[in-house]
Amino acid sequence: MTKEFYLKHHTFHIKAIFVALKDIFERNEYADKAIEKVMRANKNWDVRERGFVSDVTYDMVRNWRLLFTSSGLDPDAKLSDKNLWMILGTYLVFDGYTLPESNYFKGLNEKKIISQLEKFHKIRKIRESVPDWLDKLGEKELGKDWDKTIRALNQKPTTVLRANSLKTNPKDLQKTLEEEKITDSSLIIWSPDAVELKFPRNVFRTESFHKGLFEVQDAASQMVSEFLNVQPGMRVVDACAGAGGKTLHLAALMKNKGRIIALDVKEKKLLELKKRAARADVRIVETRGIDSSKVIKRLKDSADRLLLDVPCSGLGVLRRNPDSKWKLNPEEIDRVKLIQREILSNFSDITKVGGKMVYATCSILPSEGEEQVKWFIEQTGDKWNLAGEKRYSPETHHADGFYMALLERIK
């Protein structure tokens, strides 16, 4: 069944998209949570139906400003139900489909919509659907590269898996996936453990996932753990571990030998890490909640390697979280920059002399990456040496945007 089939015969799919959009833009819910809620309410849907509703919802969020403007609404218009239906109708025209017969779309002029789309497609901030402030910030920090960067960030992402090297390897994982009817996978040359799927799948239902053969993790994100250059037997601290995607990768790179201490301020995330570690057969991770500064002080001068995957704007992962560009603001970015500096200053001494630290962000902004590292080295005098840095860009690597710096403690 095609999209056309759903548009003509299944108005309840359109209504479900309407409900999800209302939750995202009126109730300020995260897109993934809003879509998840719709799926829970329609458990009888098959894979194609779920895929259709999810894809259209994300595509509309991704192109929200272009759709809103091209629908003819006043920029300051409130998102009433009537206006939301107009935007939904504009999307259907935008995506090349004849509007289905429905009272919801009465009054929409398809020729006028197409004319508006052509007109506004020439204006970058509307074409790529970003707020004015973000378009200015991107141009200020990235200059001429902003055009291609934001274009790449506004594309649909692929699903990328990280083969768990404790249990399998990328080529063997491909064979296993084929046995589970997933035949569209390919390897990514520059990311050693990555397996990319051409078409979206609910891979969490597969037997190979439940056996711990892989985790879902973007190819660029996987390179953060690779960059830390861990070895079996080392003592490693992941200071902003979250639910542990990079922690588990570090354990695999260390061949389950040594010790990893995973820290986070949110205990709930560390509980999730424990579950994931058990599934992945990772046995060298100890979790610790950061409930006071004493936790950090006790670890001073103790780690061979330290990972600081710090909180950031998340502008490098807009492909996966397109709604965040409507939730972000300049003040929030300034706030996370201060947090990044505090973490660098307060956590870096966990690394022992001769040890190494990686500072990483999933941001495209130099002010969250290169400039923060430069500031840190200036603040610490001759205590740290920049051993190398890398940036993975959405337009060049067709991956999430990541920055990482490898620093060596020399005093």
What's the quick description here?
With 411 residues, the protein is of the alpha/beta class.
Can you walk through the features of this model?
With 411 residues, the protein is an alpha/beta fold. The protein has 3 domains: 3-129, Orthogonal Bundle (N-utilizing Substance Protein B Homolog, Chain A); 159-216, Sun protein, domain 3 (Alpha-Beta Plaits); 220-409, Rossmann fold. Helices cover 46% and strands 16% of the residues. It has helices at 3-9, 11-25, 31-41, 47-62, 64-70, 81-94, 110-120, 124-127, 132-142, 146-153, 170-179, 207-210, 219-227, 245-253, 267-280, 293-297, 324-327, 330-347, 370-379, 394-397, and strands at residues 159-163, 185-187, 194-197, 214-216, 235-238, 259-264, 285-289, 303-309, 351-361, 384-392, 402-409. A 7-stranded mixed sheet has the order 7-6-5-8-9-11-10, with helices on both faces. The longest helix is centred in the C-terminal third of the chain and has 18 residues, at 330-347. The termini are far apart.
Radius of gyration: 23 Å
Give the class-level CATH name of the largest domain. Alpha Beta
Structural class: alpha/beta
Q: Would you count the extended β strands for me?
A: 11
Percent helix among the residues?
A: 40-55%
Number of domains: 3
Strand content: 15-25%
Q: Would you tell me the overall average pLDDT?
A: 93
Structure annotation, total helices? 20
CATH topology category name of the largest domain: Rossmann fold
Shape: globular
Which second-level CATH architecture of the largest domain applies?
Answer: 3-Layer(aba) Sandwich
Low-confidence stretches: none
